[in-house]
Specification:
Blueprint lengths: L6 E11 L2 H12 L5 E4 L3 E2 L4 E2 L2 H6 L6 E11 L5 E11 L6 E9 L3 H20 L9 H11 L2 E12 L6 E11 L2
């Protein structure tokens, strides 16, 4: 049985290169997690898992370490094509309850649209788990107010990496990542 993560941090980056894999490597470098053996997992925030800052989180990493994360990744080699990768995050007030991390990656959205969408996904999944009544068709900012007034969700946020495809047609990669720490 694997231990349960105690901390998590959010990071993101963008990379550009003529090779797709190298663009991904450069995005990981920009995110400061290129030396990890990343294992992607689904999107449950463990009970009591604390959010820490990127700098503090990166300091805990060791090169070659198996590192569990939730990752959003988008790539293009089309000049000017807008790409986005976002992680949404929602924590309940009750620290004994689990929260949600969502990943969203796609094309055409602005950084803000993508971040709001990912945050909405995570908060809506948590709200439905907590039994908060809401109108699923309402706009995100309306639902967010309902969630905040419920006093059951402590916070929600997002981390987004966004870019436009390189003008010369080189591969452009964007990653947003929630990195789990066990220490």
């Amino acid at each position: 049985m694997f231990p349960i993560p105690k901390r998590v941090f959010l990071t993101g980056g963008v990379g550009v290169h003529r090779h797709q894999l190298t663009a991904f490597e450069y995005a990981l470098r920009d995110a400061d997690i290129e030396q990890q053996n990343l294992v992607t997992v689904s999107s449950i925030l463990p009970p009591g898992c604390r959010m820490i800052g990127r700098k503090a989180g990166v300091k805990t990493l060791s090169p070659g370490e198996i590192t569990f994360c939730v990752m959003a990744r988008a790539e293009t080699n089309e000049p000017g094509r807008r790409i986005n990768a976002s992680i949404g995050f929602a924590r309940p007030v009750d620290q004994k309850m689990y929260g949600y991390i969502s990943e969203h990656h796609g094309y055409g959205m602005t950084r803000k649209q993508s971040g709001d969408y990912a945050e909405d996904l995570a908060a809506t999944m948590l709200a439905s788990t907590l039994g908060i009544e809401f109108d699923a068709d309402a706009a995100w900012n309306e639902r967010k107010r309902v969630y905040e007034h419920s006093r059951l969700i402590i916070d929600s946020l997002s981390k987004t990496a966004a870019a436009e495809g390189d003008a010369q047609g080189r591969w452009t990669c964007a990653v947003a990542v929630a990195v789990f720490r066990f220490d």
